[in-house]
UniProtKB/TrEMBL annotation:
Residues 449-464 have a biased composition (Basic and acidic residues). One of its GO terms (cellular component) is microtubule. Residues 2-351 form the Kinesin motor domain. The keyword Manganese does not apply. This is Kinesin motor domain-containing protein. It comes from Talaromyces rugulosus. The lineage of its organism: Eukaryota, Fungi, Dikarya, Ascomycota, Pezizomycotina.
Length: 730
């Protein structure tokens, strides 16, 4: 079954104008969709509206062209909370009680009504999906309990947490108790679980509401320009339903997720803190979009682990039913964001979810195993438990008490009676005693009459009978073996603990390593996201800059390199200029044109100073060499800047075209002053000393003339140079 995707268009705010509406719900049938007002009877109108499955929106580049997206259902601005719940959520409740998990999540740009849909308002008719779902769960629970006349019992437990800046926080914990690192995630049997999360039982709707309200007060929300109560985190509510009937227990889970909305930060006018939140929100949503893309392209690697939200949501991995509510605003100011949401939803609806029922669990004593009898009809001997001495409770009996319990023996070692002795489950398995092994063997042998020699032995010990001596020996041996076993088990335990510590330590190291690479990759992804956004808006030079910033994180990504090259081509077209310069270089008649062209090129340099700033920024780092060559041949502007019109090398960018920032940075470096160098961003005292040492090795007169040379100094890499440079303000 695929993810069910429904779209909900929020009504206009007072500040929004009908004139600006560009998103229009529609019906797939030829008959135009009618609104409630058109119909004499509200119910019939609602039924008609249920047929709306289309969203129409103009192409942002060509208003005359319309895009149409089809979903499972579309709810317009006049649909109520009740309409949405009755049609989409209420039908899932019975599945929850039939053993299926249900996941409902709201997705959309900031201010499109996700929180309104999921949580809603305080009044009865404004209540959102979550309180209505809980109300339905409790109603059904009571019905099950009543119908079974108390034989079934339903327990509801709730956990509620948020993912804020890619960290997980328990919403039942007050803010002051939060640890900065948040709660860790672990994989548990294919499911991602949050370690240390509180789970609260909620006996009834009232309990739930008070807990839910308390927890919501801990949720991170802030005012942004686009939403006075904007959610700054993804909120995940998990409702566990435990249905017990006799010895059978079934656990199912309803998850309701209010995702934070993606934000275009040119519109939010966010400050620094909001920007950090926003970057984290956008990044996780970007990863989500990547996961959906990878799933729809049936790629083997789905990047779930690149953000906590995608790891938890595990779209396409979780079993059961999944409903996505796509929240939309209908006005023009959301145009591009709406298109990107629609594209995302369009891909999501193709994701197939395995509809797997949760298995019930049985508690109480294990059910007896029925064994097939042998063909001859003889009952087979039950197999002995293969318990090892480590896990067995060893009974080191007190001789005096055991004496009393032990029945008097009629025979010596080979006694039939011994085999009749009853065992408790915790008795030391008789097989572990060599003596007992003999006796075990004996049970299959015919009983023996004591030998003459045995009788004489008994006589030799005066009044101690031989069977008593044998018993004493046997007990002694058992005691020794028991002590040895205990010793072995404690040694084994110590060994296990040591091993556990070792394994734990390695796991932690591994985790940290993975998180480290994940962090770096995440940074790269956020550059990519920004690049895509700029590209989409036609801001090519910023897009180019972002792609370049992303490149060090994906050094061998050909697609990325191609994008950069294409943008460079776009920004620095090189038609006749190349020809002119080349021809000029050859001294042809056309060389007359050269001064004019060169002058124009110099002007272009001033205009495009920003681009050049990036050029010199990028001209270090091995991964750029291929690209750089391409750029060098493709960019005559650079060519004319070389004194001899040749490309002597990547470092040959003369100082006169260095940006003030670069020249300042190089002058600090060339000052060879540890005090000054260590003040550069990302450089500590040690690194500053190392740089100065390097410079001294180069000789008195030699200077660092470019960023690429700086990047090649021992201990200074691409990242350090970027860091140093970004910290220079001139
Ligand atoms: N269907 C609706 N009916 C009435 N009001 C709505 C509806 N949807 C949204 N609103 C109103 O729009 C405003 C923004 O909605 P909401 O806070 O739910 O957006 P959001 O998508 O959760 O935003 P963010 O991602 O920033 O948290 C709220 O004042 C809300 O009451």
């Amino acid at each position: 079954m695929s993810v069910r995707v429904v779209a909900r268009v929020r009504p206009l705010w007072k500040s929004e104008r009908e004139l600006d509406i560009i998103v229009r719900p529609g019906s797939a049938s030829t008959e135009p969709a009618r609104t409630k007002k058109d119909s004499p009877d509200g119910k019939a109108a609602a039924a008609l509206k249920d047929r709306d499955t289309l969203i129409r929106i103009p192409n942002p580049k060509n208003e005359g062209e319309q895009y149409t997206f089809q979903f499972n259902a579309v709810y317009g601005g006049d649909s109520t909370q009740q309409d949405l719940f009755d049609a989409e959520v209420a039908p899932t409740v019975k599945h929850l009680f039939n053993g299926f998990d249900v996941t409902i999540f709201a997705y959309g740009v900031t201010g499109t009504g996700k929180t309104h849909t999921m949580r809603g308002g305080k009044s009865l008719q404004d209540r959102g999906v979550i309180p209505r779902l809980l109300s339905a769960i409790y109603r059904r629970s009571r019905k099950i309990e009543k119908d079974s006349q108390g034989a079934s019992n339903v327990e509801v437990l709730m956990s509620y947490y948020e993912i804020y800046n890619d960290k997980v926080y328990d919403l039942f914990e007050p803010l002051e108790k939060r640890t900065p690192a948040g709660l860790p995630l672990r994989d548990n049997g294919g499911k991602t679980v949050v370690v240390g999360l509180t789970e609260r039982p909620c006996a009834n709707l009232k309990d739930f509401e008070s807990l839910y309200d308390q927890a919501n007060a801990n949720r991170s929300t802030s005012a942004t320009k686009l939403n006075a109560h904007s959610s700054r985190s993804h909120a995940i509510l998990c409702v566990k339903i435990v249905t017990t009937t006799g010895e059978k227990t079934r656990v199912t889970m309803a998850s309701a997720i209010d995702l934070a909305g993606s934000e275009d930060n040119r519109r939010t006018e966010n400050g620094k803190e909001r920007m950090v939140e926003s970057a984290s929100i956008n990044k996780s949503l970007f990863v989500l979009a990547q996961c959906v893309e990878a799933i729809s392209k049936k790629q083997s690697r789905i990047p779930y682990r690149e953000s906590k939200m995608t790891r938890i949501l595990s779209l396409g991995q979780n079993n059961g039913l999944t409903l996505m509510i796509l929240n939309l605003a209908s006005v023009r100011s959301y145009h591009l964001d709406t298109i990107s949401s629609l594209n995302f939803a369009n891909r999501t609806k193709k994701i197939e979810i395995r509809e797997i029922e949760n298995e019930p669990m049985f508690k109480g004593p294990a059910r007896p195993l029925t064994r097939a009898s042998t063909t001859g009809g003889a009952l087979r001997q039950p197999l002995r438990p293969l318990t090892s001495s480590v896990n067995v409770k060893v009974n080191v009996e007190n001789p005096s008490t055991s004496d009393e319990k032990k029945p008097a023996k009629a025979f010596f070692v080979y006694s039939d009676k011994q085999s009749l002795k009853s065992h408790t489950p915790f008795d030391r398995p008789r097989r572990s005693s060599p003596l007992k092994r003999n006796s075990d063997v004996s049970t299959r042998l015919p009983s023996k009459i004591p030998r003459e020699s045995d009788r004489s032995a008994s006589k030799a010990h005066g009044d101690i009978p031989a069977d008593r001596i044998e018993e004493m020996v046997e007990r002694k041996v058992e005691q020794i073996l028991a002590a040895r076993a205990m010793d072995d088990s404690s040694k084994q335990q110590a060994q296990m603990e040591h091993m556990n510590e070792e394994v734990q330590r390695r796991l932690e190291l591994l985790e940290r390593k993975i998180e480290g690479t994940e962090d770096a990759r995440a940074e790269g992804l956020s550059y990519l996201l920004m690049a895509k956004q700029h590209h989409g808006r036609g801001e090519y030079s910023s897009a180019l800059r972002m792609y370049r910033l992303a490149l060090p994180f994906f050094p061998r990504n050909e697609k990325l390199a191609a994008k950069i090259a294409a943008l460079e081509e776009k920004l620095n077209p090189q038609p006749q200029v190349t020809a002119e310069v080349q021809v000029a270089g050859r001294g042809s008649i056309l060389s007359i044109k050269k001064p004019v062209k060169m002058a124009r090129t110099h002007a272009a340099i001033d205009e495009n100073y920003k681009i050049f700033e990036h050029e010199d920024e990028d001209d270090y780092g091995d991964s750029y060499i291929g690209l750089k060559r391409k750029r060098a041949t493709a960019t005559p502007k650079m060519a004319v800047l070389k004194d001899d019109n040749t490309f002597a090398g990547e470092n040959a960018i003369p100082d006169r075209i260095q940006s003030p920032r670069t020249s300042h940075l190089l002058s600090v470096i060339n000052s060879r002053d540890v005090g000054q160098i260590k003040l550069l961003k990302g450089v500590g005292a040690k690194k500053a000393e190392a740089i100065v040492d390097c410079l001294c090795e180069m000789g008195e007169v030699d200077q660092v003339r470019s960023l690429s040379e700086l990047g090649r100094l021992k201990g200074v890499g691409l990242k350090t140079v970027q860091n140093m440079r970004s910290g220079v303000f001139v």
